[in-house]
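Predict structure. Chain length: 258.
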Amino acid sequence: MTPTSVSLSDLTSFLNEELEISRYNDQAFNGLQIESSSRSVTKVGFAVDAGLSVAERAADSECQLLIVHHGIMWGQPEPFVGPFSKKLHLFLARGLSLYASHLPLDGHLVHGNAARLAQEIGADNIRPCFEYRGATIGVQAHFHVPLMLDDIIARVASFEGALCPPLVLPFGKRMIRSIGIATGSASGFIPETKHLDLDLLITGEPKQEAYHCAREFECSVLCVGHYASETFGVRALERVLAERFRVETTWISEPTGI
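Prediction complete.
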């Protein structure tokens, strides 16, 4: 299949609408974060993070657009100095634009990290869960046949960049029928997981207080790694853009070990 050329504005407009980015009150800016001089796109890079090393690999692969989960615009504006300046210069000098989707790509029921993770481990009956600032950013799901916690651990251990072994707080049930999934750093949802009578919370990385919280609420928690829990959304977008717009795509893998 011969890759086609698509305008940057058409791609970003599609992503903005498809991901419903206006629904989310996010500390991150969702959407086109850097607009380069490349107005047409034939190749798109996909990655979890917009690190300098990732951007260099995208530019070396002759991408005109990099789509990530973790962009570079968070909270208050930062001065363009140091590594931030180097990163911005690389994007603009190499004709590489940057699009980021944070919370919208966590909670989306079709393309989202949580929903795709649930499918990956064989769960079904996937529904929105875990409200944050007026929108849900995770899912709850069920297994048609209950699984032992150890079986689920074995399944997530194969994820790209997964903690080896995954971190387990086994203070609840060992036979799992229902799960809650909130990717990234979402151990704060332990009380809600227990309140919803879910058997297991799957997330990326925990806060320190997660240990006692899980123990006191008698809730099992499985932490697969922040990076490992959030490859699914951008990989889903990679497939969507390749099929819909016929652009060439490349996956830039750089697990962080976190």
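Summary: DSSP finds ten helices and 13 strands in the chain.
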